[in-house]
């Protein structure tokens, strides 16, 4: 068990690398000579710089907590069916689907592309909508990180400074946002690319250290496998043929929705600066190929941390420590949710219930019912809290009713009785809403509190450093993404004559500061009442529900029209707003209202009828706490509808084909200094190269990377591992022991081997590319002042200047 507070060694391990990263961000200022440097690194980044930077961006606190929320609930068996998508994702990566064409447009932002393809008014509207959705989805990040570090570092709830009492939660959010915004103001995309690359180099060895520690801490055969196997029928954590009973995270989520998003949302978040920063479209494509290997070490780390929590909180060897963790989690959640004075008595009684709960552990063996999604140690623990909340809020409401009705005696009018029944229903709805908030915080804080119990000195500081750097990289990247969209696509179009480079960069910095302030107040006051994944998808739905046809058909279909783009985007926005309101107010307003009217049974029948054709994949039933339709299901059906709308409206309104060659700088519009081979060789000799995206642009090393990726991903992982195990189990099904061996080899051993190789390879390439970046930026003599994101007549001003 770890000490209560961080030692000086832990603090040194945490603080020194963070200071170095901030110094390098400040150092990047000397290379910013124009707007294009600040926004897209002057378009001189190599593939390994982009790839290493994405290591830091891909690893995040919110991502790790989200992953654990899912895996703690559903295990790892569902991930097996994700391999069905391997051929699809491989082809998308090898061919550079969407990313290659977007880089060809030379757009600095998504909005600039939208103005080139559609119109200026659509650029402003779409950019504003995307920014709003992005900011709402991401504004909870500082609060999640602050709570995480408060619990993990065992920081006090408040501290005193200059006679003032300052909440630690708010102080940490200010610190995190200040560091992130400072990096943006130092050098924009250039500073983020440089610091993210350095963070990626630091993170690789840290990730390997934690993987080794967790593998040594828990016995695979005596602790990990028994807990993973102890699951109810239809909810296996290991056997992918026994997962039919999962509700929120199931095969539909893993396969159909993910496959759809992989194709149609591949371009939805492009235009964040880094996606436009490569030396060429080919270099951007190669960076995306390397990303397929980059995730090996991150996936191993995520899996091992999830296993760590599952075993620690459920195996009898750790029952006493796990009970301490659960009690602390519940206490902290209550302190955050029931901080209003009117809940003082309720909080005291719920806390008394928590203090009385004894350590729980699960016996494993014949005759003992296994754990399930709705009946496990956490749900049993939380159910005591839920039940006490309902009893207390109902008692408060009943007391108010009794006082009000004292004058009536035994002759209470029917209308008053109806009001009383409604008041009791509202009280239960309030209790459900409070419990939902407590449950959310309980799940989110489990990682930090558990790691505080497990990690020794030194490794504890390294873990804090790992997640601090991950948090910093995620915060600055997402703040800058929204900054870029607002500054370039909502403000810049109102300055047709442009701004001087100095004023332009200053405007971007001011927008970044404003978004940082928005994130602070959003984190402070916004209540996130669902799984993180669902909350993010729900918030992003305002943009995602209608943007996929706008982006995909905008890049690939010459008949797409501005009218179709407006129709799809507005329809998706309205539908998602209605869904957001229903989801946000379901437990405290919507369901109680339906219950008062007696409409719950009818609604339940309708929902059951609509979802019945999908079997166990989609089950829509009325529930007092959770909205029947989750955000994955909503996004999927909304996207299908808006795609159909876009196609129909385009066919009805298209009067002239759009000039795709001009937008993509092809044919007569090709840049003299950039040779692009557009036609693929479909002859018998060249068909294989064309399928996996190899063109004459590829060097010998590029071809080796493409062939290696194809061999590893398609031949080995898909054909030999996935199809081989699938066919074998159809005829000779494995036991849980067999699937545990498969899980160990396929999910841990093989990725660890790949990670060991790529960590050396990518680090060397990243160092080389980083020095090349500095040299290239230092040698430049000319900066195009018109290359600032403005568009005139569906053509970038920078292109007009070149012509």
What does this structure look like?
The structure is a single chain. The protein is an all-alpha fold and 803 residues long. It has helices at 8-27, 35-40, 47-58, 61-74, 78-81, 86-95, 99-105, 110-117, 120-138, 141-152, 168-217, 220-229, 251-264, 281-314, 319-337, 344-356, 377-404, 414-454, 459-491, 501-525, 532-556, 562-584, 586-597, 600-611, 631-653, 660-664, 687-691, 700-731, 736-779, 797-802, and strands at residues 158-161, 164-167, 791-792, 795-796. The protein contains 30 helices and four strands. The strands form two sheets. The chain has a two-stranded antiparallel sheet. Strands 3-4 form a two-stranded antiparallel ribbon. The longest helix is centred in the first third of the chain and has 50 residues, at 168-217. It is globular, with a radius of gyration of 27 Å. The model has no long low-confidence stretch (mean pLDDT 82).
- Indicate the multimeric state: single chain
What is the overall shape? Answer: globular
Put simply, the count of helices is: 30
Low-pLDDT parts are none
Classify the secondary structure makeup into a structural class: mainly alpha
What is the helix fraction of residues, given as a range? Answer: over 70%
Strand order of the largest sheet: 1-2
Residue-averaged pLDDT: 82
Strand content: under 5%
Radius of gyration: 27 Å
| Termini separation | 67 Å
The number of E-state strands comes to: 4
Q: What's the story with the biggest beta sheet?
A: 2 strands, antiparallel
């Amino acid at each position: 068990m770890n000490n209560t507070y961080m030692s000086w060694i832990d603090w040194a391990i945490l603080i020194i690398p963070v200071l170095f990263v901030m110094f390098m961000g400040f150092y990047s200022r000397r290379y910013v000579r124009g707007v294009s440097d600040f926004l897209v690194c002057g378009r001189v980044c190599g593939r390994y710089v982009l790839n290493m930077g994405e290591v830091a961006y891909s690893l995040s606190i919110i991502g790790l907590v989200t992953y654990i929320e899912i895996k703690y609930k559903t295990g790892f068996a569902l991930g097996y069916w994700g391999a069905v998508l391997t051929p699809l994702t491989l082809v998308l990566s090898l061919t550079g689907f969407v990313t290659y064409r977007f880089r060809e447009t030379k757009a600095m932002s998504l909005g600039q592309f939208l103005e080139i393809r559609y119109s200026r008014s659509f650029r402003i509207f779409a950019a504003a909508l995307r920014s709003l959705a992005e900011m709402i989805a991401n504004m909870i990040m500082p609060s999640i990180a602050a709570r995480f570090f408060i619990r993990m570092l065992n920081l006090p709830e408040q501290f005193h400074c200059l006679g003032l009492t300052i909440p630690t939660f708010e102080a940490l959010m200010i610190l995190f946002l200040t560091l992130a915004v400072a990096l943006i103001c130092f050098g924009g995309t250039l500073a983020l690319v440089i610091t993210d690359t350095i963070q990626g180099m630091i993170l690789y060895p840290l990730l390997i250290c934690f993987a080794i520690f967790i593998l040594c801490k828990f016995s695979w055969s005596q602790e990990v496998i028994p807990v993973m196997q102890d699951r109810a029928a239809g909810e296996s954590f290991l056997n992918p043929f026994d997962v039919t009973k999962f509700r929120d995270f199931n095969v539909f989520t893993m396969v159909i929705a993910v496959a759809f998003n992989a194709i149609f949302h591949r371009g939805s978040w492009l235009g964040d600066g880094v996606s436009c920063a490569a030396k060429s479209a080919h270099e951007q494509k190669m960076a995306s190929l390397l990303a397929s290997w980059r995730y090996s070490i991150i996936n191993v780390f995520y899996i091992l941390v999830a296993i760590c929590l599952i075993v620690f909180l459920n195996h009898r060897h750790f029952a006493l420590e796990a009970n301490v963790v659960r009690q602390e989690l519940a206490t902290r959640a209550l302190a955050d949710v029931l901080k209003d004075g009117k809940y003082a008595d309720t909080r005291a009684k719920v806390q008394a219930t928590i203090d009385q709960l004894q350590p729980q552990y699960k016996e494993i063996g014949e005759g003992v019912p296994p754990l399930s999604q709705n009946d496990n140690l956490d749900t049993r623990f939380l159910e005591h809290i839920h039940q006490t909340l309902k009893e207390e809020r109902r008692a408060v409401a009943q007391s108010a009713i009794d006082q009000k009705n004292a004058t009536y005696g035994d002759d209470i009018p029917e209308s008053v009785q109806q009001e009383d029944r409604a008041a009791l229903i509202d009280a239960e709805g309030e209790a459900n809403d409070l419990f939902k908030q407590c449950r959310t915080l309980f799940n989110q804080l489990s990682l930090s509190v558990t790691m505080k119990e497990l990690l020794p000195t030194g490794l504890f500081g390294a873990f804090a450093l790992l997640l601090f750097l991950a948090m910093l990289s995620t915060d600055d990247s997402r703040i800058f993404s929204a900054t870029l969209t607002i500054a370039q696509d909502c403000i810049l179009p109102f300055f047709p004559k442009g701004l001087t480079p100095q004023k332009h960069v200053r405007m971007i910095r001011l927008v970044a500061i404003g978004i940082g302030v928005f994130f602070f107040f959003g984190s402070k006051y916004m209540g996130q009442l669902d799984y993180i994944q669902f909350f993010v998808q729900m918030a992003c739905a305002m943009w995602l529900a209608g943007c996929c046809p706008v982006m995909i058909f905008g890049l690939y279909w010459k008949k797409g029209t501005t009218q179709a783009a407006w129709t799809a985007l507005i329809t998706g926005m309205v539908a998602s707003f209605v869904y957001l309101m229903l989801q946000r107010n379901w437990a405290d307003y919507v369901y109680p209202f339906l219950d008062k009217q007696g409409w719950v049974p009818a609604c339940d029948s309708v929902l059951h009828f609509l979802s019945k054709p999908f079997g166990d994949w989609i089950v829509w039933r009325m529930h007092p706490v959770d909205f029947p339709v989750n955000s994955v299901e909503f996004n999927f059906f909304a996207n299908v509808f808006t795609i159909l709308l876009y196609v129909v409206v385009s066919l009805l309104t298209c009067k002239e084909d759009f000039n795709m060659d001009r937008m993509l700088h092809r044919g007569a519009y090709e840049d003299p200094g950039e040779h692009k081979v557009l036609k693929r060789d479909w002859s018998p000799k060249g068909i294989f190269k064309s399928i996996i995206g190899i063109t004459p642009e590829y060097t010998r090393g590029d071809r080796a990377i493409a062939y290696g990726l194809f061999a590893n991903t398609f031949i080995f992982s898909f054909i030999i591992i996935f199809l081989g195990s699938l066919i074998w189990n159809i005829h000779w099904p494995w036991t849980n022991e067999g699937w545990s061996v498969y899980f160990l080899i396929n999910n841990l051993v093989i990725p660890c081997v790949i990670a060991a190789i790529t960590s050396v390879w990518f680090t060397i390439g990243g160092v080389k590319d980083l020095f090349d970046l500095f040299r290239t930026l230092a040698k430049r003599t000319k900066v195009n002042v018109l290359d600032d994101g403005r568009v005139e007549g569906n053509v970038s001003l920078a292109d007009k200047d070149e012509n």
